[in-house]
Amino acid sequence: MSFFNNLFGSSTSELPEFWHKIESEEDLKLALEHSTEKPIVIFKHSTRCMISKSVLRNFENEIKNTNQPAIDFYYLDLLNHRNISNEIAEQLKVTHQSPQAILIKDQKAIFNASHDRISLDIMTKHLD
Predict the structure, then answer these.
(1) Rounded-to-integer distance, Cα 115 and Cα 112, Å
(2) Mean local confidence (pLDDT), 40-64
(3) Which InterPro entries does the annotation name (predicted)?
(4) Count of structural domains, the chain
(5) Structure confidence by residue, pLDDT tens digits, 67-122
(6) Looking at the domain assignment, is residue 4 inside a domain?
(7) Inside any domain, residue 40
(8) Residue 25 is part of which domain span?
(9) What are residue 20's phi and psi, to 5 degrees?
(10) Global pTM?
(11) I want to staple 46 with a disulfide (CB 3.0 to 4.6 A). Which of 21, 29, 90, 98 is the partner?
(12) Signed CA dihedral, 100, 108, 85, 2: sign only
């Protein structure tokens, strides 16, 4: 892996297995439908932003260090799928930010956070 990939992010093929990629409007539709069965988080990541990469890695470490959170996780590459990010903002009535994590239950955003406010612990508290 090159220095720049380490610094700015590498391909999404290297994501941990718990991520479900959103790469189309159909993927988004299925993710939102899934939120009626189990809460989901959509993490919107800018692959060229060092801050976004750092927040993503910290969030991933939280997930890895948690015993089976009651949430499924979805990943959106903002640079390749800005149109889907816009669709998320419109459907869920959540202002676009990057990086951003949106907690969704029953096809409604129940919490969202950006930058250093992104925390799995805080999100799970909103499920109670």
Answers:
(1) 11
(2) 96
(3) BrxC
(4) 1
(5) 877 899 999 999 999 999 999 999 999 999 999 999 999 999 999 999 999 999 99
(6) no
(7) yes
(8) 16-125
(9) -110, 125
(10) 0.89
(11) 98
(12) positive
